[in-house]
Design a protein that fits this description.
single chain, about 180 residues, alpha+beta, 2 domains, four-stranded antiparallel β-sheet, about 45% helix
Length: about 180
């Protein structure tokens, strides 16, 4: 999520810097269009930090997070890391293998930020049920600062757009 947010910020910077140093904007609408594109990238960056992705359990199982540990995690454990506002969250899922002969009604879980005990999924040719969920959070102070900076930058962009709109309407409707 942090990398995604950074990519959106880089795209916003690219939009702003992708002009010759001596370039002069011709119309207010040209600036408004640029500011809309920049604000879209900044909003996407902020949203990646404020709204974690909803993932299915098979998506978590196939992600690189489970494979990055040395020694490897046991096959009955899944992990998921995500950012939620100013916190880094770790969720550990303990799994129970469902036997093919089980009489339990298998109902695969959909996408969620946090899956509860009893959630079921199929991965590979095996069916699993979540037996326990453990979640821990750690506050990351600079993430809060980043969210504040995104909010302030979006407000400044909007103020610039408002001022340009006022002046553009003045010049467009000026009697000659």
């Amino acid at each position: 999520q942090i990398q995604d947010a950074r990519n959106h910020v880089n795209q916003a910077i690219y939009l702003l810097m992708n002009r010759d140093v001596n370039y002069q904007f011709k119309t207010g609408s040209e600036v408004l269009k640029l500011m809309d594109a920049v604000m879209l990238q900044l909003s996407r960056a902020r949203n990646r930090l404020t709204t974690p992705a909803t993932l299915t359990l098979p998506e978590i199982a196939s992600s690189g997070l489970t494979k990055m540990f040395t020694p490897a995690l046991p096959p009955d454990v899944l992990v998921n890391f995500y950012i939620n506002l100013n916190k880094l969250c770790l969720t550990v899922y303990q799994l129970h293998v469902l036997q093919p002969s089980t009489t339990k009604n298998f109902k695969p879980a959909g996408g969620s930020i946090l899956h509860n005990p009893g959630a079921m999924f199929e991965f590979g040719s095996q069916r699993y049920e979540v037996s326990h969920v453990h979640k821990v959070e750690c506050v990351v102070p600079w993430l809060n600062d980043a969210l504040v900076f995104f909010t302030v930058s979006l407000q400044l962009c909007q103020q610039l757009k408002d001022k340009i709109s006022v002046f553009s309407s003045y010049w467009n409707y000026r009697p000659y």
